Amino acid sequence: MSADPPLLLVLDLLGVAVFAASGALAAVYAKLDVFGVVVLAAVTALGGGVLRDILLGINPPTTLQDWTFLSVPAVVGLLVFRWHPAVARLQRAVQLADAFGLALFVTTGTATAFSVGAPGVTAVLVGMITGIGGGVLRDVLLREIPTVLRREIYALAALLGAVVVVIGHELGLPSFPVALVGALLVAAVRVLALWRHWNAPVPR
Amino acid sequence: MSADPPLLLVLDLLGVAVFAASGALAAVYAKLDVFGVVVLAAVTALGGGVLRDILLGINPPTTLQDWTFLSVPAVVGLLVFRWHPAVARLQRAVQLADAFGLALFVTTGTATAFSVGAPGVTAVLVGMITGIGGGVLRDVLLREIPTVLRREIYALAALLGAVVVVIGHELGLPSFPVALVGALLVAAVRVLALWRHWNAPVPR
Amino acid sequence: MSADPPLLLVLDLLGVAVFAASGALAAVYAKLDVFGVVVLAAVTALGGGVLRDILLGINPPTTLQDWTFLSVPAVVGLLVFRWHPAVARLQRAVQLADAFGLALFVTTGTATAFSVGAPGVTAVLVGMITGIGGGVLRDVLLREIPTVLRREIYALAALLGAVVVVIGHELGLPSFPVALVGALLVAAVRVLALWRHWNAPVPR
């Protein structure tokens, strides 16, 4: 989101596509109609960025100003609607891609907060919300308790990545390598959690 | 919403009243208390406009600045609370009035986005959200998967109307006739969908 | 929230702590993991203030700019996660403390709306939303119909307190005593509703 160089834009659209696929698949399982599937794809893919911009006072939200960011979830939503059994078989690949999407959204969200002059604590929270907000909206619309609050070290991975970016910023380190380290940390924690079936403790 | 001439204001309040009735009736069925019924009436009637203003950076939202817009859902909520069996018998009339309310909210929402300088793509989305946002909030608060994403070509009607207004704006056509055509299209699609039991395709 | 004198800050943090405990306890019952419990504590404690600031155009929301306001729900969330049976036995004390938290949030929310120049009607609504918003978000995330709309004269108490503050403001009365009267009214209505098992009428 809000990335200038071509490489970042491509990564960004890839993250949007992956989140859109997760939203569309959940909507298919909930028996929404084709239009609902596309809306869920868009909400899941763009919701985190919209929440970020609402909290930071960026009006209208940047991802709602660009056909590119909207056409990706629309196309992904239609593809998933038509070929969802095939997408469901790729579940493991989708989860890995989702780890990467989360990593990207958390680090760009944190950076966006700094770009409008927010303090470190706000940047951590906004980065985390950018990463997990779309998934939370998806689950609320589908009447599920948000998965990210229940399983597999998801929100914690987002928090760790955002904290790394904020610490790097406070120390005055160059922003691109710091963002890379933060993103790799998010992705690594997610992949390890999936692979090793890590879960956070639940109440006794 | 935010309409100047008396006719538009009356139409606007009528749209608010119809959406309020739909929210109050759903709240009655969900066994909310009288205060919850009034709150649901207000959220359903004003929620779309509030989301519109949050996304466009209009603070505080215009419909929260005027007793008129609040007293209508309050009165409607109390009437429905007391006489809900009679209102439920008018179901078909309420659905027709709802089609008209949707048409109005979508077109004024799209126009409001243009009035603050938003680009066309944002105007389409904001118009759609103005129209369907109140119903989505109603369903989320009542723990339902939003009806508009599941049935009867509701969100699609909103999208079509918003697109017509945006195309008219991009072509430089006069805004009132364009808004009228957009609104009639929304209402016509809704009435046809209800009458012919049109539904969008669902996943196999 | 946003209180300057030390006494108000302490009261404010106490209100945050109580709301955090209610959110954490609900999350424990819903079997969220430890991280989800902390997130629910934070959302319940800070959600009303964040909604207030979004509606008033205060960006980023003030409670997201201060480690103090975040560390309280984090600590409370962890304590409740570990010792929730003990907290559950204190249910009556938690409910009384919650009445006090609601009183505080409603009156400071109403005052914040006036401080940015909002009209009276907006101040009433924003005050009410500041008080009940966190609880509504808690219930939506846990897939419950919001308790405040169903039982025990909760939202009505908030409304009454906000109206008192607004009337005092419109009459030009000194703000601190007016806020005190408004807060005491909220707390008194809540305590009476709990003690006498008052409920608002439900539909026949």
TrEMBL record, chains A, B, C:
The regions listed as transmembrane in this protein's record are: 6-27, 34-55, 67-84, 120-141, 153-169, 175-195
Q: What residues does the Glycine transporter domain cover?
A: 10-83, 96-169
Q: Which InterPro entries match?
A: Gly_transporter (IPR005115)
- Spell out the subcellular localization from the entry: Cell membrane
**One Pfam family here:** Gly_transporter
Per the record's keyword annotation, is Nucleotide-binding included, yes or no?
Answer: no
Its membrane topology is listed as: Multi-pass membrane protein
What UniProt keywords are attached to this protein's entry? Answer: Cell membrane, Membrane, Transmembrane, Transmembrane helix
Give the CC-aspect GO terms: plasma membrane
Coarse class of the primary localization is: membrane
Q: Report the PANTHER family cross-referenced here.
A: INNER MEMBRANE PROTEIN, UPF0126 INNER MEMBRANE PROTEIN YADS-RELATED
What does the similarity note say?
Belongs to the UPF0126 family.
**Name of the featured protein:** Uncharacterized membrane protein YeiH
The organism named in the record is: Pseudonocardia thermophila
